[in-house]
Design goal:
Tetracycline Repressor, domain 2, single chain, globular, about 70% helix, mainly alpha
Length: about 210
């Protein structure tokens, strides 16, 4: 066994640089699959997202899937985590770039915008997938829950009394309202009603955080 191991270690493919390059390629491929899946679940739902379709969209063969993931649920968990992270990071960036005292309103305007309404596959995964989440595997729900908590924290940090139980409670209510409004705005087939729903929510919270 020692002789065999020695022979393998002297092969050019076993050099550290080659190993790193192989690992980097595998990591890049893994990231591409997760990125495609994160868009796919928001676009087509968990039930409508198949492994074969994801691999095809990523430019890979179906057979290579299990080199990266133990199961479809493992992929969906990573996709849910990625989609949630994108939404949280975007809101945090919007808040950071806003003028003093305008961060909360900036976050809400962006969330309830026409752009977000139309960009389902790149938007908030809770608004796109909320009704399906309770039927998912525990690891998928856990990933989604973690990002929901982070989104609540982003909103709470923009409130004047951040750090108090009251701010956290207010943030939970606001995030729930934003998500619910977006779900309804997408559900209706009347563009004017869709816009009115979003405007009503913005008007209701216009004084919050000032």
């Amino acid at each position: 066994m020692m002789a065999i191991m020695h022979i393998k270690s002297s092969h050019p493919s076993a050099k550290p640089g080659a190993k790193r390059a192989t690992q980097n390629r595998k990591e890049a491929t893994h990231e591409r699959i997760v990125e495609v899946a994160a868009r796919a679940i928001r676009r087509s739902g968990y039930a409508g997202t198949g492994v074969a379709d994801i691999m095809k969209e990523a430019g890979l063969t179906h057979g290579g899937f299990y080199a990266h993931f133990a199961s479809r649920e493992a992929l969906l968990a990573e996709a849910a985590d990625r989609a949630g992270a994108e939404a949280v990071n975007l809101s945090a960036d919007i808040a950071a770039a806003a003028a003093p005292g305008q961060a909360l309103q900036a976050v809400m305007r962006a969330y309830l915008s026409q752009q977000h309404l139309e960009a389902v596959e790149n938007g908030c995964p809770v608004a796109a997938l909320g009704s399906e989440m309770h039927r998912q595997a525990p690891e998928v729900r856990h990933a989604a829950t973690r990002r929901i908590k982070e989104m609540i924290d982003v909103v709470a940090r923009q409130l004047p009394d951040w750090g108090t139980p009251g701010a956290h409670e207010q943030a939970m209510f606001m995030v729930s309202s934003m998500i619910g409004t977006m779900v309804m705005a997408r559900a209706v087939d009347d563009p004017r009603l869709s816009e009115a729903l979003r405007e009503a929510a913005l008007k209701h919270f216009s004084e919050v955080g000032k």
